[in-house]
Amino acid sequence: MKKSLRSRTVASLAAAAAISLAIPGAANAADHSAKSASFTDGCATGMVTPISTWGQIREFAKNNARILEAVPNDQNRVCSPNSTVVGDPYKGCGYNRANGWIKVKTFGGQWGWVAMTCWDDAPF
Length: 124
Description:
Layout: H1 5-22, H2 26-35, E1 47-50, E2 54-58, E3 67-72, E4 77-78, E5 85-92, E6 95-105, E7 111-115, E8 119-121
Antiparallel strand pairs: 1-4, 1-8, 2-3, 5-6, 6-7
């Protein structure tokens, strides 16, 4: 007996659903990846954290500005609320030609700028 494309698709979806229920944390994986697509809303909490492995704080809102600090994604930095400026366009963290930058303080206390789409608001 020949199986139709529809019955094979339904069987595949049922198997995937059964596997995701059987593996702890599999259902949360979709939530995590959807959340990682978000980015800071102009420093709403006063703290931000890099979305990528390392977030770069630059001296100016320019791609070729000197890097003041590279911040690992497990650390937060203080940001200046409502400090969003239009700077050099960049391609990063899933966005092309984004140009929003926010003001962030380095660990050493110097203010710099970060590509807005590569940082997310951290809980305070």
